[in-house]
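Running log. JK asked me to keep both predictions on one page so they can be read side by side. First protein, sequence followed by its tokens:
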Amino acid sequence: MAPGNTQGMQQSLRQEQVLLPAMLQSMELLQLPSVELGAFLERAAEENLALFVEPPAPFGASDPDASARRDAWLQNQPDREPGLTEDLEGQLPWLDLSNEVDPWVRHVIASLEASGRLASSDESLLGEARRAGLAGDAGDLGRAIAIVQALEPRGIGGRDVVETLLLQLDPTAADYPLLARLVEEHLDDLARNKRPRIAEALEIDLARLDELVRRLAALELTPGAMHTGGDEPTLVPDIHVEQGDDGFVVRLEEGGLHAVAVDADVETLAREKALDREVKALLRQQVEQARWIVEAVEQRRRTLLRVARATFARQRAFLEHGRDALSALRMTELGEELELHVSTISRAVAGKYVATPHGLVALRWFFQAPGGGSEDLARASVVSAVRTLVEHEDAARPLSDEELVERLAGEGFKLARRTVAKYRKELGIPSSYRRRRYS
């Protein structure tokens, strides 16, 4: 091989070795939401003397409008309920539990699933209790479970669906025996909508059965789910889309971002001739890494803004009319328009949220394949149409999948029966046979 070719290959290899870390850094930072980006930069600054990172100033410190936007955003956030564990333990001081019983009750509470169910077996609970150093036996565990099952909301601590529902019934009510039998013996038939068979077994008429079923429908299958709000983080938008004088304006949420730069003092020190060779090499490496991060942060900002602007240029109908007007959009289409690889689009939208005129929405949600009929119809719009038809059907004569196909065709959605059946199942809507209401 000629010497010139060898030298050219070596130079090309060195360029690739320099570019590869920078490219990987850009890819990594692009997929991080703003909150995670800030945590990444703070960790990086702790490890790199050459990287200067400044946390964001409090809202309104330099921009009064930013403070107003922040206040409006916080006011629109729902109030956070206490978590399930916090809520249940908060009831214990009122029970005046003994020092021996209290730790067992807290052990049972800690073993509950987020739904409020107690799925662990007694053997498993006892084993965990012994490993935790609790003194006692199966009798102590049984008493603790009974105490937890008496806490609010009712149904907490049930081992399965049947026990969860039974715990919510009032044993002193006149219809308790019928409700208990309905839960214990006929849930499967009820799921299959075999109401005439159930009414005959319970020796009641259909009207009375419907009354009992309505009572059951008011109970909670997962009573703990309503008390998990305290465990959920507040979502923060990465992008805002707002109505402006000349249309909709897309902008990034810059107010909460960290300022990042290469530390000028360290950069100067790395060029100092009198500095020890190894120290100088280390500083130069950190300066280079800091430059990669600074460039990656800026590249993330540019790419995310480009992708967001192009997305909402295609989703103007959503901005004007709401979620049912969502347009079909594939990442490959946007990638071709912006001359970006589809993986770059995917990283840009991953974990990002957009504050829109119709609420906070995940950016990835705006990329949906056509749902049928026209290429312009997003899948979410078609699914919404299926839901609406079922909600307004005659309960005594619910629409079959074939009839749904016909109704949807009349609204411009041309779908196969199996596609409608798939969307119906995704919505948790049972078949027409199970939806039928007997009179």
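And the second, directly underneath as requested:
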Amino acid sequence: MGLGQTLLTIMALMLMGRIILSTNTSTLNSGFSKDIAEYRITATSLGTSAMETASALAFDQASVDTFLTYSRINELTASNLLGPEAGETSTFSYNDIDDYNNYVKIDTVTNSAIFRTMIFVNYVNVSSSAITVTTSKTFNKMISVKVTSDYLLDYSSDPPKRDTLQFNSIFCYWYFR
């Protein structure tokens, strides 16, 4: 084997090494993107599930067994008392939306990350151009569900920062005769 053939063999090995490295990098990046998407889908599912569970309950403790009219708005739970009532110790005993205020749940999903779900409930004023949190009793409550994990990262910043997915929904009290 001459010098020319040796150089061609070395160049072929270098080219093959570069192709293998490029393929491995591409595969690694694809797997990483897949994992990030999977964490976000799981977090979205947990947030949506929490929102739907709360939405199946009564608007307020005062409306669990009866209906309210605007003249009875003072019977609604005070904003500083939003949360579970006495004796409501788990989500199975919750009977109205605001029982979820300051609720925290840690979920360990099989073959995935550990997720932390936090729920906050506030009275809100709704106008045509703005939604504002208020301490006054209204027939509108906003539920904010925040889901986070050590594996939910925002890569648009350098270095990447932990990301939190937030879901908001406004629930209004309506009674039709």
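Observation for JK regarding the second prediction: The chain has one helix and five strands.
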